[in-house]
Amino acid sequence: MFEPKPKTEIQFIGYSPPLPTDDSTVYVSEKCLEVVSSRHRQNNLSAYRRVDKYHFVDQCTGELRDYRPKEHSEQDTPSHSYHGFNELRRTILANFTGSERELHLVLTAAPEHSADLAELQQTFRRFWKRFSYRYPLIEYLSIAEPHETGRFHFHVLVTAPSQSKLYIPNAQIQQLWQVGYTKVTRTVSGDRLSAYFCSAKKKERWGKFYRPGQRLFRCSKGIIRPQRKKLKREEVDTIVEQGGFRWVSGKTYTVSCDYGDGNKHFTNVITKEQYQR
User: Fold this and answer.
1) Are 32 and 272 in contact (CB under 8 A)?
2) Between 256 and which of 52, 57, 73, 264 could a Cys-Cys bridge form, CB atoms 3.0 to 4.6 Å apart?
3) pLDDT reading at 260 higher than 90
4) Where are the beta strands (DSSP E) in 147-199?
5) How far apart, in whole angstroms, are the C-alpha atoms of residue 179 and residue 198?
6) Whole-model pTM?
7) Integer Cα distance of 190 and 181 in angstroms
């Protein structure tokens, strides 16, 4: 007999500062600090430990149970790419500020060329080989955006860390791209870029076109990837103070879980905070 999979409910409650005893996951880069703090209770989600795709263990009783198969519909929101959006947002904030050493390239394949993601990635690799030969000191972060038709195009954020200003004419980019249309603009602030590429609407729409395992973005070796650390809240406060970070924003959620008895059990409080130098 199949048992129902535990159902969770997340509710936004504004912002509540974490307690000193809360556990925190911290993503650190030179310019930004993102902190995710959690406050678990005894009856938390770990009461159910996943064994495989179809089974879980109720650690309160020791029973091995079966997940009830979920009936999917077209209205279901895909979630397999959400983790990639979090990584993308952190990487944008760590590398792009809207300075004059940055550019935003849009690369689109003409109708007669394939815009399948795998083939377009190969096209981009050839483009970047030509591009980096001409401009060797530039780093990139490329994001593949799907159109409703299923065709993909690229947004490429480029930066020249060793230069004070970067200028590349669109005609030069189009010549290097070779398979379609291009557009070159200045970047905006990291906050606006991350809000544009990682909005809730994009998570829902893009998730329909990304299969599990497909990468949402790619970047060159010189792009900073924020370091992930597990710390106590007291240690986070020390990093903030010693690193000269300032609090920018924060939001708090409560997590409740229904274990099948018809009641909602409080399980966790999660607070997400952003700091910048």
Assistant:
1) no
2) 264
3) no
4) 152-159, 180-186
5) 27
6) 0.74
7) 25
